[in-house]
Amino acid sequence: MAEKFAAKNLGEETSFDFDFMQERASAGQHRSGFRASTFFNTYYICELVKVGRRRGMAAEMMDIDDVDLSQDHADLSQNSLSEASETALAFIEQSLERVCHEMQQGEASSPAIYLRRLDRYDVVSSQNLVGNGHRAKDHPVKYSWPGKTAGEAWRFGLISSLDLSEPTDLDQACALAVLNSVHAAISSGNGVTKRDIYYADPELFGDQSVVDRLIADIAHTCEVPRAALFVTASPKGLFLVPGQASDEPQTIPLNPPSMRDINWILVVEKEATFNTLCEKGFHALSRSGQGMLVTAKGYPDLATRQFLRLCCRSAAVPLPVFGLFDYDPYGIDILKCYRSGSKVSAREADLSLTEMHWLGIRSADIVDLASTSALSLTQSDRRRATKLIEGMTSVTGEVPEEMFEGRAELQSMLVLGCKAEIQILGDDICRWTEQKMLDIMSR
Predict the structure, then answer these.
(1) CATH code at 238-441
(2) Which reaction does this enzyme catalyse, per its entry (predicted)?
């Protein structure tokens, strides 16, 4: 006799055949290492959610053995969710309900989760826009379970874009666990970080980057910004402004500081250069007035980009935003991320800082400074520069205005065959940066 469990406080009984589920899950576990408890959790939650959503009532979870079903789901009828969040919630519930329905059909069933993965985005001028002047190129991704092979079973429970025949491959994430986490975050209205999702079971996920990719896939599939999933990234960026409680750089906060006495914002690619400017008091002593120093320690995370946009919006008058990056393909790519976003943030167009002034380093600076400080481009640099140029140009040859400078400098870089880091400025970095800023501010 199959053991049955009934949901409480739903006004009707919802039963689950866990013997049947265990039989299916055990088969998958035997073939792929997929853990039955993860599917039990998903199956049970999605059935509760289906009934709870239909009746507009809260679903009280029960503790069943070692499966954590204790988290209460909020009363969605009381939540004030955005349309984008409702869209994502509906997609997740429909996907999980479809899986549960298939699981009940017997051994001939083939439960699957369908997502779309963004491959790249092309620059366009006015049509088929995904973000700020970009057109998406993506492909469908299907994950079925338990499948005919161990690989197919593994892909359903553990998503990977790499060779899944290697059991040591860490680039794996549990699709069902992430869908559950996102659903719980939206339902409760309490945000969760990607790191929280990963550390809920790091052994299962294997690597943080796969959780990041799956979150991006869900957002792209639902055609919503990541914020609609109530998933955030732990901020890695730093900032410093005059008059703050500590003289030390602070981690990027959720809300911007007072911008009343701030005259400019300077974004620096490297943390080492950022620290040098902080130590010299550039943010407080510059002839360009008091300002804010910011670094994302390389490529900008979403939290840093959100912070910068909020700072600009909260300022009483428009503030000039400056950028200081290495003269190499990576530095120009980072500039591009600030100005127009990246593939993973294609739907976060409102965060683009198209107004950012690029101070350098540029090809003209290489000519002006000691030539011995420049480095030769590697073959890898050349390939990356060529790929970036192609990505900045549409099939019709159009290039957005915010990419003109970067594209031209990449072409010059390939001709000159050299690159340079910000450190080429040496002890003159404060005077050089200050003069560049004053020249732009006086226009």
Answers:
(1) 3.40.1360.10
(2) ATP-dependent breakage, passage and rejoining of double-stranded DNA
DSSP string, 29-47: HHHH---HHHHHHHHHHHH
Token digits for 103?
Answer: 């699981």
The CA-atom distances, in angstroms, between 134 and each of 52, 306, 334, 399 are 39, 20, 17, 11
CA angle, 208 as apex, 202 and 209 as ends, to 5°?
Answer: 150
Q: Which of 408, 399, 410, 400 is nearest to 333 (CA)?
A: 410
Find the Cα–Cα–Cα–Cα dihedral 123, 129, 131, 137, rounded to 10°.
Answer: -60
Cis peptide before 332 (omega within 30 of 0): no
Given pLDDT bands bounded at 50, 70 and 90, which one contains residue 286? very high
Q: Give the H or E element holding residue 28.
A: helix 18-32
Supply the pTM of this predicted model.
Answer: 0.64
Cα–Cα distances in angstroms (integers) from residue 323 to residues 204, 209, 341, in the given order: 39, 27, 15
Q: Quick check: helix, strand or coil at residue 345?
A: helix
Listed in sequence order, the residues at least 6 apart from 408 whose beta carbon sits closer than 8 Å to its beta carbon are none
What is the C-alpha separation between 340 and 342, in angstroms, rounded? 7
Tokens of 254: 């959720």
Residue 13 CA to its chain's centroid (Å): 40
Catalytic positions are 199
The pLDDT tens digits of the residues spanning 86-104 come to 888 888 888 888 877 777 7
Question: Can you give the pLDDT at residue 223?
Answer: 84
The two three-digit tokens of residue 129, written as one number: 């826009």
Residue 346: both structure tokens together:
């294609």
Backbone angles phi, psi at 170, to 5 degrees: -85, -5
Q: Of 312, 45, 308, which Cα lies nearest the Cα of 187?
A: 45
As given in the structure block, the two tokens for residue 88 are 């994502």
Residue ranges of domains in the chain: 18-232, 238-441
Pairing state between β 292-295 and 321-324 = unpaired
The answer to whether residues 224 and 84 touch, using CB atoms and an 8 Å cutoff, is yes
Residue 162 CB burial class (10 angstroms; 0-12, 13-18, ≥19): exposed
